[in-house]
Amino acid sequence: DSIQTIVCKFFKISKNEMLSPRRSRYLVRPRQTAIYLSKILTSKSLPEIGRAFSNRDHTTVIHSVKTIEKLRKEDNELNINIDNLKNKILYNQENEI
To answer: Where are the alpha helices (DSSP H) in the chain?
Structure first.
């Protein structure tokens, strides 16, 4: 949940937009990023992550993770953004403890 909030703020979209079934590019990339970060930063299962994103299928979660991993190899800006988000998420979680 905090991952979704932080990613939404970063990409300047609302949580409702991220969780909507719409597939506009400006919504898909942040959603995939949030799913990717959920996968690498939590111990949640694929179906659990899918449920957190408006009951998406676990195959959608797999696709999102693979897409972001592939894009990270090609897109340096995305790489930097994801690292920044990762630090923000981990840093914020430390503050909440």
So the answer is: 2-11, 15-19, 25-41, 46-52, 58-74, 76-96
Closest Cα to residue 84, out of 1, 9, 27, 15? 9
Global pTM? 0.91
Please, are residues 61 and 44 in contact by the beta-carbon 8 Å criterion?
no
Per-residue pLDDT reduced to its tens digit, 45-54: 999 999 999 9
Backbone φ and ψ of 79, nearest 5°: -55, -50
Query: From residue 33, how far is each of 68, 74, 86, 96, 97 by CA, in Å?
Result: 7, 15, 10, 22, 24
